[in-house]
Amino acid sequence: MISLDNCSKYFHKGSVNEVFALNSISIDIDEGDFISIIGSNGAGKSTLLNSIAGVFMLDSGTINVGNRDVTTWPEYKRAKFISRVFQDPLLGTCPSATIEQNMALAKKRGQWRGFSRGVKAKDRPMFQEKLKMLGLGLENRLQDRVGLLSGGQRQALTMLMATMVRPEVLLLDEHIAALDPKTANQILRLTEEIVGEQELTTLMITHNMKHAIEFGNRLIMLHQGRIISDVAGEEKKSLTVNDLLQKFYDSSEEELVTDAMLLA
Amino acid sequence: MTVYAALGAVEQGLVYGIMVIGVYLTFRILDFPDLTVDGSLPLGASISAVAITNGINPYYSLMFALLGGFVAGMITAILNTKFKILHLLASILTMIALYSINIRIMGGPNIALLGSATVFDAVIAWGIPGQYAGILIFAVFALAVTGFIVWFLKTELGMAILATGDNPRMITSLGVNTHMVIILGVGLSNGLVALSGALIAQNQGAADVGMGIGTIIAGLASVIIGETIFGDNNIARAFVAALLGSIVYRLAIALALGLEFGGFSFSPSDLNLITAVLVVIALIAPNIKKKVVAR
């Protein structure tokens, strides 16, 4: 479904601030995989998702999504089959547009936008039905501006919008990190429901190791731009938070050892 | 202010209102401060004047003016999106280039249209007096343009333009090429500004290379006045407010020019200063109000 081959990405290349964000990453992702991605700050999690989405071009390596070589495709072109939910709840929706306008925008994801009416009366029942799923009462507020909604409500709406046209790949970049625990939990359940129902190939970044273990059929741990752990199936089911912490400390220790060697 | 001056101000407000709608589209909808308009207004005037003096139907000449303005706006937007030049600078570059281009088009700094056919001929032929013909024609054009823009922004494509100004990252992730949208939007805006310039030239009986100076400031002043007085809580209201703001602005200018303090009175050359002061007041007033209310 998705295959990354030897993907590398530098930021500020050639300057003193040079960051090696992705270090020759190769990975194959199967159709229907739900992968949770963990790693410390600066490990390259967001960079990995952004390079699949096409926010920037890689310095080397190739990306294939569904048998298309998308390595040089711009973001808007990949959006036809890749959907995203950002960490910042404000990023996924248009504040000055109404709920129904936002949903109508999402309904045309990746399609030609012409001169027919933006919000079509025949779509409203479908919008309301989808909003009812959230249980937030938004189905009665189609004409309200999205700027009036809370962060949690906006993120829930973003989840609906991202999956309104079924994407081949769903990218979730810490999409619950900016929410309070209760709302975060609701959005996570909603995610599980939608992903299960549409059988989406999903990559989810999280800082919560429990979530990383609970959700998905595969878990990837990143460190300094490399994949240091990749577990799936039965092995993943039996993982504990302690196992993950151990793996994480092992990799950090290795770093300490190399630092120590350098200083010696 | 005499009735005659007031009528003149309303007439000016309507025809410049078409320009103001263009400015609203870039400044408020696309969040793209566009100074190209100082060049595309005389561009429209030049194209229309040259077309008419070459025997082309004055209505067709408006089409050419609109197209010319559209291309000028596209150039600014391409410089900004494809070549990463800051939008303000990109638009100043196009504006400066248009100064030379306009003189080339006209073969000199101005062209007189006295005695030539204009869009007003038909209306005057119906027996409507000259001073009302302008208001009538301009009202029809201004309302048609406002109606068109409001309709357009409710289409799928129009909503993509709104979203591009509002949240470019979101609309990119929904598969819209924001560069193309900005090129289209800034092009459309300058097309309208050029149409406004063409109508002004036909009304004045001349196109002049200097007639565009201060267009952007007049446009911003009208936009801000319109928003402040008439509100902007939906698209239709916002554009009608911009058009009405243009009329109020021209009336205010006419009023200011009529003032006398002892031996001092404003002259038309003080217009830019008055406008600049007006815009500054309009821009800082909300902040001052906030501070005063907070106390």
Task: Please give a quick description of this structure.
With 264 residues, chain A is of the alpha/beta class.
Care to describe what's here?
The complex is a heterodimer of chains A (264) and B (295). With 264 residues, chain A is α/β, with parallel strands linked by helices. Chain A has one domain: Rossmann fold (3-Layer(aba) Sandwich). Chain A has nine helices and ten strands. In chain A, strands 6-7-8-3-9-10 form a six-stranded mixed β-sheet, sandwiched between helices. The longest helix of chain A has 23 residues, at 241-263. Chain A is globular and about 60 Å long. The mean pLDDT of chain A is 90. Chain B is built from twelve helices and four strands. The longest helix of chain B is centred in the N-terminal third of the chain and has 27 residues, at 3-29. In chain B, a hairpin with a 2-residue loop joins strand 3 and strand 4. With 295 residues, chain B is mainly alpha-helical. In chain B, helix 3 (58-81) packs antiparallel against helix 9 (178-204) and helix 6 runs antiparallel to helix 11 (235-258). The model of chain B has no long low-confidence stretch (mean pLDDT 93). In chain B, the strands form two sheets. A two-stranded antiparallel sheet of chain B has the order 1-2. A two-stranded antiparallel ribbon of chain B has the order 3-4. Chain B starts with a helix and ends with a helix. Chain B is globular. Helices cover 76% and strands 3% of the residues of chain B. Chain B has one domain (3-294): ABC transporter involved in vitamin B12 uptake, BtuC, CATH 1.10.3470.
